[in-house]
Amino acid sequence: MKPWLNAQFLSTLRLGVKSLLLHKLRSALTMLGIIFGVCSVIAMLAIGEGASYEAQQRIKELGSSNIILRSVKPSDEDKSAGMGRGSMLKYGLTYADGSRLQFTVPGVEHVLPVRIIRESARFGQNDVPVQVLGTLPYYADIAGLEVARGRFLSDTDEAKQENICVLTVGLARRLFPFQDPLENAIKVDAFYYRVVGLVRERSTLQQRTQSGRTEGETLDNNVYIPLSTARSRFGETLIRRSAGGFEMEQVELHQITVRMRDTAAVESAEPQITALLQRFHAKKDYELIVPLQLLRQAEALKRTFNIVLGSIAAISLLVGGIGIMNIMLATVTERTREIGIRRALGARRRDITTQFLVETVVLSVGGGLIGVAVGLVVPLAVSLLTDMKVLITVWSVLLAFSISGAVGIIFGLYPASAAAKLDPIEALRHE
Amino acid sequence: MPADAIIRIEGVEKRYVLGGEADVYALRGVDVAITAGSYVAIMGPSGSGKSTMLNILGCLDRPTAGSYWLGGEDVSRMPDDQLSAARGRKIGFIFQSYNLIAQLSVLENIQVPLLYQGKDLREHHDRCVGLAELVGLGNRLHHRPNQLSGGQQQRVAVARSLVNDPVMILADEPTGNLDSRTGTEVLDLIDRLNAGGKTIVLVTHDEEVAFRAHRVLHMKDGIIDREVFNRALPV
């Protein structure tokens, strides 16, 4: 690069800015298209990234090395085929399923069975609807419970079928507003359970991913008791009063969480588990949730989402670019005489091209800068006004900005070359 | 033909090809030699080839035949970029309608030809100010063209034509848009430049203006019809 080129370029740049400032309103309106385009790229990607980040977090909390099985009440047709009115409905996962999974699927670290009973817990005058979860000690580890006070269930409790329980912190506050819950006993159904510990759930997100299902861990309302205790105290038959009679259900286990040694084992184990369950379940009375697959799906969804958002943003940038081109073509016509003068004074075609290209790029990059500024504010405003999570990534800002520059060059080339192609004699004669 | 001619035009033709019809000749074999420091006026009615001659002399157009030597270089076959550079370096234009760039100040207008020669503006700043003072606009450096009178604008154009120290000043009806008093001022200025050694070629249809030149070339039908010597070149 020759040393004078910089000085010349700088003066071309100054001239470009000057020419644009000559028509302030026109320049501002022209920039608007790019501003919106860049702003929408950044804002859309920020909102998209935020949403998918949140979804991925929820899925990760389910544990990517876990496979979750849930009992599902079979659909009505299946039900009526097997039984008459008022008879026992038997469905769901069984203890046998648990041990079969434990011993036949390679790579299994833990099989965690859970029974869920809806009851109400009482202490003195307080009566609170709760979920009783009968489970094993390592539930705390797999579900990510944090022991706030006391302890969680132990192997001894399980072996001895102890009448003890662990409460979630929120539930303890509701049941024991004035007393210390530890070593007090709560009454559930017909039996008393001594409180040995308080736990805090890692988050309440887990519930939301189950989208509308009533079973499963609800918000901070859980009573944990040993699985063996649950089996002996509550039995396996649940009676539900419904309009016109009783409905009896027999469910052994509501949920089995299979923890694999590592995430790599998840993929190979999944078809084996499916096959195993199909052999022993005539009806499809269970569902299989593989968080790892959900994660993959979420990632694929995010890609699709990004493509859609990206296309919308690209179209708006395209429209902005066409707007710029349109104005620059008008400007070239308007300044034909100036072009003629410059050519007569020694400007080569490429000097004219540079001049108009610089003007277009100043417009689009200027618009790009404003767009970046607005694009950073909009997602923040969105996250303040709604509780949506937004995530502004550096690459989306760089992408949007470089696209705005590219738009300037691409849509500036035609008007600039049109200007350069003008015949100087004709251009000088132009009024 | 004098050997010290700084401008030599030999057998220059300009032919326009019109589809289906016979070709039209704007110039049909022009020979001119202009010595350095002379003042030449070109006259002629419209359609005489005067404008075409001006465009070729100004390197804005190329002849279809013949050669044009300008300051020791044949510019008649130059590609566009080189021709543009030659135009900026060797020719100082003065137009009838001043042709200043509206958004630039007086000083910046004077600097424009420097820009396209790739010269450093700071280095030449003082000289540009000097040129503005020469044409009597030293106190108007930062005015815009629309803040100046026609005579002042034309004087800016004269200063601009000098900035690259060209081989010749090519003036196209420089007084056409001016009243007689300011026109005289501008012509006096051009006379002074010529007295200082500048070669001047001036296109006009005004006998009085042409009378200031050493030589007047009368064009007709694409050739130089006759040539009048008003006075001899100072030796």
Q: State the end-to-end CA separation of chain B.
A: 18 Å
Main sheet: strands, sense, barrel of chain B: 6 strands, mixed
Largest contact between protein chains?
A-B, 27 and 31 residues
Shape of chain A: elongated
Number of domains of chain A: 2
Straight-line N-to-C gap of chain A: 38 Å
Do you know the CATH architecture of chain B?
3-Layer(aba) Sandwich
* Mean pLDDT across residues of chain B: 91
Order of helices and strands of chain B: EEEHEEHEHHHEHEHEE
Q: Tally of extended strands of chain B?
A: 10
Poorly predicted runs of chain A? 80-84, 204-218
The overall pLDDT average of chain A reads 83
Order of helices and strands of chain A: HHEHEHEEHEHEHEEHEHEEEHEHHHHH
DSSP helical segment count of chain B: 7
Q: Biggest sheet of chain A, in brief?
A: 6 strands, mixed, barrel
Give an overview of the whole structure.
- The complex is a heterodimer of chains A (431) and B (235).
- Chain A is an alpha+beta fold and 431 residues long.
- Chain A folds into 2 domains: 7-58 and 297-429, no CATH class; 73-284, no CATH class.
- Chain A is 58% helix and 20% strand.
- In chain A, strands 3-4-9-6-8-7 form a 6-stranded mixed β-barrel. In chain A, strands 2-11-10 form a 3-stranded mixed beta sheet, with no helix packed on it.
- In chain A, strand 10 and strand 11 (245-250) form a beta hairpin.
- The longest helix of chain A has 44 residues, at 291-334.
- Chain A starts with a helix and ends with a helix.
- Chain B is α/β, with parallel strands linked by helices.
- Chain B has a single domain (5-229), classed as Rossmann fold (3-Layer(aba) Sandwich).
- Chain B has 7 helices and 10 strands.
- The two termini of chain B are 18 Å apart.
- The mean pLDDT of chain B is 91.
- Chain A binds chain B through residues 2, 4-5, 7-8, 11, 15, 18-19, 22, 337-338, 340-351, 424-425, 428, and chain B through 55, 58, 60-61, 80-81, 84-85, 87-89, 93, 95, 99-104, 112-113, 115-122, 160, 164.
